Amino acid sequence: MTLSQLQKAERFNALHAPGEPLIVTNVWDAITAKIVSQAPGVKALATASHSISNARGLQDGEGLSVDEAIDAARIIAGAVDLPVSADFEKGYAADAAGVTRNVRRLIEESGIVGINIEDSVGAPKAPQFDIATAASRVAAARAGAGASGIPLVINARVDTLAGGGDWDEAVARANAYLGAGADVIFFLGLTDEDKVSRALEQVKGRISVIGAPGLVPLTRLAELGISRVSFGPGTLGLTLAALQRTATDLTALGEYPADLGFKFAL
User: What span is annotated as the signal peptide, if there is one (predicted)?
Assistant: First the structure.
């Protein structure tokens, strides 16, 4: 059954359930979207801007133009019938009006049903927009979604801790973004159980986090009440590491790896 964009958006929102987190394995093109979508249990997909940019030989941090970012999202969303969320960086705009315009374009031209939007001026450790400005950009994204008629799921990123900032400021930002229309807070820097628990207690809404080796295990994140886990460019790194290991073994006249016979098709 093919779902409408509205149905996908509603389903995507419902999948963010505290204690039963949505696991989104980040993808960066049509074939990775297709392959991940066919994995048992996968219910939705999310793009990673870092991976999309690097696959094109570009740096992350809005190295793509807004047209290129929208086209990348369109290709990925068009390859599958699952809900897809796009990492839309800072909205590819200098002001709130531009964010509104670009988010509406993204929804209408690509078919996506969710976005990540950042609160840093540049990379994650760069200075952040002041709280009022960052919140106004979340509100602008919500306005763009409203104009499109699609209940976009906004995953608003808080970069404060990742940049070495203050805990209370991070929480204040999270709650301000929820008040401005975010559905979920993408809280970077929750590196241990204590921080996860504190965030869940103090943030007045659902929380998503990054998963990686050395961080809180997925089963424990579920027990604590996290609503979503993603992996950013980690999945591209995993793929490239496997490719490099294979190239090393083959060059050394090693055995053919079983995965060299993996069957795939669009």
Answer: none
Q: pLDDT, tens digit, for every residue of 169-212?
A: 999 999 999 999 999 999 999 999 999 999 999 999 999 999 99
Q: What's the CATH number where 106 sits?
A: 3.20.20.60
Q: Which residues span the domain enclosing 85?
A: 5-261
Tokens of 61: 């941090």
Contact 193, 163 (CB under 8 A): no
DSSP code at position 261:
G
Percentage of the chain with pLDDT > 90?
A: 90
Check: CB of residue 26 under 8 Å from CB of residue 46: yes
Specify if 244 maps to a domain.
Answer: yes
Work out how many domains the chain is built from and give that number.
Answer: 1
Amino acid letter, residue 120: S
Residues 216 and 235 sit within 8 Å (Cβ to Cβ) = no
Q: Which amino acid is at 148?
A: S
Going across the sheet that includes 45-46, the strands are 22-24, 228-230, 206-210, 184-187, 153-158, 114-117, 84-87, 45-46
First to last CA, the chain: 18
Cα four-point dihedral sign 67, 72, 73, 75: positive
Instruction: Return the ∠ at Cα 132 (arms to 176 and 201), rounded to 5°.
Output: 20
* Total-model pTM: 0.95
- Token pair in block for residue 219: 């089963």
Q: What letter represents residue 171's amino acid?
A: V
Q: The dihedral of CA 42, 51, 228, 153: what is its sign?
A: negative
- Residue 14 near residue 155, CB atoms below 8 Å: no
**Active site residue ranges:** 60
